[in-house]
Fold these 3 entries.
Entry 1:
Amino acid sequence: MDKGTIIYIGGFELPDKNAAAHRVLANGKIFRELGYNVIFIGVNSSSRSGTGLKRADFSGFECWSVPYPKGSLAWLKYISGASDILGLLRQQRQLTRVVGVVCYNYPAIAQLRIKKICREANIKIMADATEWYDASAGSLFYRIVKCIDTSLRMHWVHKATDGVITTSRYLTDYYSEQGKITVELPTLFDVRKFNSPLIRDNSTKIKFIYVGSPFDAGRVNKERTNLKERLDVCIEVFFELHRSGEDFSFDIYGLTANEYLQVFPEHAGMLQEMVGCTSFKGRQPNEIILRHIACSDFSIFFRDKTRVTLAGFPSKLAESISCGTPVISNTMVSLLSYEGTAGLFLAKRGEELELVRKLIKSTPSDINFIKQHAYSSRVFDYRNYTLKVAQFLDKVGV
């Protein structure tokens, strides 16, 4: 049954260049299962500025992209509403029966211009909100623009939509209290693409892995209060374990040692002592990272309680569990709904070392059991959320 077309617009880079791409692709599959045609309009970092829109097809979806904005002028044009995107939206409105538009973490002014196009054609507009951006560091120009855009988006523009897709209880509560129709979705995956975890070799040391971007080294404030994740806590935990004679490996994907030491120069000595068990791998293609996650015994990351972390959901958690690799993290609001999930181990802040010290004692058979149990849980399979999304779209009137 053809219920019409939903257009998904945002800064995602399909098919799998960033975490945003994984999220919108899974959500698009839900829409498709519910009978909607889905068109994606994202970005492409490999396209040269000024080359305009490009068409491609991924997973059976029609996908368009514009060059990823580079430089202040390109960013200003993008956040004020790229003409190519607005033009394509008007064109699709003529070619297909567009019934809804979803703006993923989209700039406020650009989103308002999209809303105007939607209202003219009686098209429902929805926001997919997964971030509450920080504007406490960077150049003065960056901070001003980011602060204005984020404030407008979160406090006004999203409230003016027909419905909000959120990714955390914090944002769900925030918009529900404003009377908005909401549906809460973590980052989801098609779990059928993941293979059953390999049986662990009894002779290998326990392998931990961190994957992510814990901070932008050029935009960390002096007090270091705007860190997205506390990789430094991981380093300190493993340093203590190393000093106590524990045998393990800890691989870090997403940044280099030099990038880390720009923000935490005091850890140079620790890293030098742990050179035999801790390794920075830098940025790698998602396909390679997935293989390393699947081959690891535990994924690990920690976060502080800030508005940025309260608003978001750690997509790496869903990805790791879906791979069958258990996750070590800390208790946070966005994970309250998932406490008790197979393969998820949570510590209170300050008790991270105690938890990792306990898990590092796991036997190979323990780890094999945990990995298989996590993989079989399928907690983050998009198919589990079709009913919730159907109810949300029905309330919105799509």
Note: The CA atoms of residues 246 and 360 lie 8 Å apart.
Entry 2:
Amino acid sequence: MWWGSSVAQLGAANAAIASALLALSLTRSTVVAGFVAAAGTGSRLLFYLPAGMIADRFDRRRVMLVCQYTRLTVAALLVLGLLLGGSPGWLLAGAAAAEESLMALYRLAEPAVVRRVVPPPALLTAMGRNEARTHIAQLLGRPVGGLLCGVHRTMPFVADALTSLLAAVALHCMSTRDCPAPRKRRDAAQASGLRACAVLIRSDTFLSTTLLWCTVTNAAFQIVFLTLVVQVDREWDSFGTGWLLAIAGVGGAFGAWVASRLVRDHRTTRGDVPLRVMVWCAWGWVAVTGVAVLGDSSLSGLLAWAGLNFIGAHVNVALNLHLASRVPDSMCARVNAISALISQAIAPLGSLSAGFLLSLQLDTRIATSTATTLALIAATFTTYRHLQVRKRRDPGLLDARKTEELISA
């Protein structure tokens, strides 16, 4: 399953970058390219909640298989449409929307399968490897997508279809004993709706604090990224953009490798991830964004970008481990869907804010200072919640008994 998911994410990253590049090259319109990118992002955000309900209702392994075979069909239809001379803008936008929606459903179903395949003592290592896989797939998939676009406009999507087929074959090779079908009798957690999942998130101090931190810093993340693109464009050539993508992938992959060791050292005897890990990550974000402000150059921006991905990998590993070990299996996908929607919904606003700030002033310190301010607010809030938890000597985590009582209520 790990190799199959790696191949699937590699194909998705390849298709995502190829869609934007191809839309720009075939239509010569930045508006169409932006529309294609927005179609993928918007469809993913809108589909999170229905996808979570689907993944909790049906056999997750079958859901993952349907996703891969449907991705294969979408990629084949896109290749056929491009060869027949169809409208590239609408074809690419529709394919991007379908691709992102299907991968969102796949990513929501996968963690519930991982917790059944992987024994609890190895769960942290598995989450670290999954996080590293994501960054490596993006690191390799983006340049591969650009390279295949230069060969022929259909080649990236032929590769996407092939990776979908390989991922499906890997899922077929799994033992059905590792991923049994859901029970016919629905328990309280499975019958609960989205509102109960939202209440569970709010009642868990670690989860609610981490999601609020991620929501604010995702906006800051987009500001730093767009500022860095502007700096690289001014000071470097197109080769610098490749380095930008490479450093992001390397920083995130290395962060995931370190996180699986660092988080283990700070877990309690019950296997919980303490909130103090999030406090360290929060203030690390402040320090790293401060580097971008003080340096105000592409070099300092690249270092900050790598640092943000390094710290972000720690947060993702800690959050995914907590979701896998504390949330009931029958509502895992819905809680993951709500968490993803909360943390990612503000990211487009960060991009729009960065564009506005950069258009007002030539000095990029204005934008990076805004990102640092957002990181400082998020770090202060996280520290405050941590001090509250320490004061009442409560780990701030829902145990199994509290979770069942909450669901029943």
Note: The mean pLDDT is 78.
Entry 3:
Amino acid sequence: MTPVDAGRSPDARYREYLDEGLLHFQRCGEGHAVFPPRLVCPACGGRDLDWRPSVGTGVVYSATTTPVRDGEEYSIVLVDMDDGFRMMSRMDRVSPQIGDQVRVVVRPIPGGTEPLPCVEPDHAATGRD
């Protein structure tokens, strides 16, 4: 557990983890998962927030496919992460269904430069290729 760095924004620390290829979230002293990163837990108001590595797996809660002019369509998904928080993400080349098991991959999106947490099917969980 790494306590919130004094003098540095939670977003800056979160992006440093992403630069390392890692997805992290915060957990308050009462045990609530906090995401996106914040200074205060939205559930209890606690300020004692520690950084935790995400297990990187979850289940699709909601999904929509977005067409792209002159490009490949992609999906925007809400994922209930196994760590206890819900995250919006992107899924390329797959039309996800509610309930699909996914895993996080941290990478730049097409046309982007900063790494972001994207998801892909979790074949290990489903036993499918």
Note: The mean pLDDT is 91.
